[in-house]
Amino acid sequence: MGTILVTGAFGQIGTELVPFLEKKFGKEHVIASDIRNVEGVFPGSRFRMLDVSSRKDVSAVIREEDVTSIFHLAGILSATGEKNPDLAFSVNLNGTYNILAEARDLGVEKVLIPSTIGVFGTSTPKKGTPVETVIRPSTMYGITKISCELLGEYFHSKFGLDVRGLRFPGIISYRTAPTAGTTDYSVEMFLHAIRGNPYSCYLKKDTGLPMMYMPDAINAMVQLCEADSARLTRRTDYHVSAYSLTPGMLEEAIRKHVPDFHVTYAPDFREAIAEQWPESLDCSISSRDWGFSPKYGIEETVIDMLENLRRD
Ligand code: SER
Q1: Catalytic residue (one of 141, 174, 213, 265)
Q2: In DSSP terms, which residues pair with 157 in a beta bridge?
């Protein structure tokens, strides 16, 4: 067993992936890294400060820690990316290039890079969106993430680096409240409901987006990583999603359990981002190639979210 490096470990996915990997492989085999340390999130874990946009620092961490595989989660999401395109370009594009180039040069065995529904644009078919389709994103997030997918494919075909990746939808989770994306309303809605507060949603009531619950997202990443390479017909663009959700549907599903919950709708700039993205994804290639099969539907997600938020 080698050493797994997780970049962006304090992000929404990282905070759940790190403990998952530690449980599966042992704490000694996992290194959490992020641009800053947040005390107390990963007690007893191995941690390295890492700015992925510095190639020198990426190289040092991989070398010094004898890294054998990387979950490269560090990235700037859609909403922050529109406010700070320079930062999104630097972290997403330069950061991914640095990870791939150093992984190649230092003999890392496997690199997983998550991508996103943000790679799609208004000319993409909205429903059951296939992997191969029109891809013309117009956000800095989408532009950098499609470039990262292509960089991953390039490093695989040209240098034989084992790069794998999936296009995530919005992810619902309770451990870390996401704050930088367009799909975050879903988590915010739960947090307001559980505190007995009304919620003002920044998307329209009927804006549909593909979504999934965090345990299914974590399983998908690990399953893809462990899949037999010979069965993979894609490299960096496997679709994963469990359902198509609108804010109105989620409001209704939560209200079944929190009857007094009240939502108003005041769309802001994030509505324009969401309207460029698909409503649902075709995930059949992921199911066929590596057995993707999400367990949580909308109702199961809502029940589990409320249960965990109430407990915490
Ligand atoms: N969750 C991301 C965002 O909203 C999409 O992949 O930016």
Answers
A1: 141
A2: none
Name the residue at shortest CA distance from atom 6 of ligand 1: 116
Query: Ligand 1 in contact with 80 (CB < 6 A)?
Result: no
Q: State which CATH number among 3.20.20.80, 3.90.25.10, 3.40.50.300, 3.40.50.10610 fits the domain covering 170-211+242-280+295-311.
A: 3.90.25.10
Task: Please tell us whether the domain made up of 3-169+214-239 is placed in CATH 3.40.50.720.
Answer: yes
Active site residue 185: no
In percent, how much of the chain has pLDDT > 90? 97
Q: Tens of pLDDT along 85-129?
A: 999 999 999 999 999 999 999 999 999 999 999 999 999 999 999
- Measured from the Cα of 180, ligand 1's closest atom is 7
Q: Per the confidence metrics, is the pTM higher than 0.90?
A: yes
Ligand 1 binding pocket includes 78 (Cβ within 6 Å): yes
Question: In whole angstroms, what is the distance from residue 194 CA to residue 211 CA?
Answer: 20
